[in-house]
Amino acid sequence: MYRYSIAALGLAGSILLSWRKRRQQRLARINSLMIKSIKQKENEITFHWMEGKGAYKVYREDELIYSGTDQEITDTGLVPGKTYLYTVKKMGPANQLANTIKIQTSTVTKDQNPANVLQNLIVTTIVTHSVISMEWEPIEGVKEYIVYRNGEKIAKVKDCQFIDDMIESDKDYHYSIKATRPLALSEKTMSEEKFAIAGIIGFFKKDTSEKEAVLERFSLTKQIGMVESVLRPREQTSDRTEWAIRYTTFLTNKWLKNPNFFSTLRYFEGDGRGFDPEAPNYRTRADILINFDGRSPNVRLVKDVGKTKAYGWTRRFKEEETASAEGIQLKKSNVTNKEASIQLIHSVGNPLVASPAIDYKMHVRLYKNGFYDISGVHDQSPHQEVYLKNNYTSWQPIHQAESKGLEWLSATMADQFWRVSNFK
Fold it and tell me: Name one Pfam family in it (predicted).
């Protein structure tokens, strides 16, 4: 009994020491962030460092903007609503490099976009050899956020931040922050009316709950490249000069019932497929082509609309027609030799019956150095897929959303908001 007690105490002591060691290692990894806080304004960003961090150098892109030991520095003369990349190098004895971290953050936007709350949301990402940290501005009406890493749920947070200290430097990571909020908290006008009508539709639609029908959905994704590559000096120019963004809407079913029970056109033919960037069947497709080869990028839109086919009660063919592509438009807000800022607006309806149009908006910021920030808002019907590629890569998925049914095309139903940006 005595020997067992001693052994148990020894085991307990070993477990305690092991726990303390793991905790100390975790704290050491978190302390490698070096940052106490970051404050953003329209034209400046202020960094507050942890005490006792010694000398360090701060670079914005390639430019050295500070070298010293101050616990606070402010970078001024910045552009509102722009994302900036900072490299912080902690210096050790004899001016030797002791640690490197990279910070991606942005300034405050002058004019917020009321259509998509995610578009101008300030997101700050910090990458070190052992830790990745993300912090974002709160979304009004959202109480909690679910964090996914490479598709796997890793956390549920109420504060708008998380720290991942279980990373490997030879891997890349995709983080998605997902959230929902009641439609009634969304807009200043019509929210109560929309909330009530959406609930009624959800009540009568057997595969949709009332709660689901009145919930807006948010998805905020950061695609981080291989950590050891991210921490290396980054080239400001890239030979990836040709880019393409493909936005496709499609109906995954082979057949769809017309929600209007009294219509003689009882069925519509769907596209009968899943997510696939090269699939020939779709409702609409919009390709944005950007080429940075010249003095200023060449930006153009290629658009197409699939044929709508209607059938009767016995699924005998009735008629077909193709809707106009005039509702697919590209607007250029800022195009220079270094970046392209554009917006894709889409509103295309069913050409055979009176019904709500497929509506979406997508905003794209693409830089010559390879950084992109893409955001959008769309109806939760039909299926939606967005892909990106350049002259060195194949199509990569940026956003994919499944349809909840044709009823969700109604303007009274909740929308889905999304945003994807990279850190490479």
Answer: DUF3238
- Which residues are bridge partners to 284 per DSSP? 249, 305
pTM, full prediction: 0.86
DSSP codes of every residue in 71-137: SEEEE-SPPTT-EEEEEEEEE-GGG-EEEEEEEEEEPPPSS--TT-TTTT--EEEEE-SS-EEEEEP
Q: Locate 191 and state its tokens.
A: 């929210």
- Spatial strand order of the sheet with 145-149 comes to 152-157, 145-149, 173-182, 215-224, 416-423, 372-378, 358-367, 339-348, 328-335
Could you give the domains of the chain?
Answer: 33-111 (2.60.40.10), 181-423 (no CATH)
Encoded tokens for 324: 């106009």
Rounded Cα–Cα distance for residues 256 and 268 (Å): 5
Q: Looking up tokens 């609930």, which residue turns up? A: 199
Taking only the tens place, the pLDDT of each residue in 247-303 is 999 999 999 998 788 889 999 999 999 999 999 999 999 999 999 987 778 999 999
Give the span between the Cα atoms of 170 and 180, in whole angstroms. 33
Q: CA-to-CA distance for 231 and 383, rounded, in angstroms?
A: 37
Length of the chain (residues): 424
How far is residue 122 CA from its own chain's centroid? 12
What are phi and psi for residue 300, nearest 5 degrees?
Answer: -145, 160
Strand partners, 133: 126, 163
DSSP β-ladder status, 63-68 and 416-423: unpaired
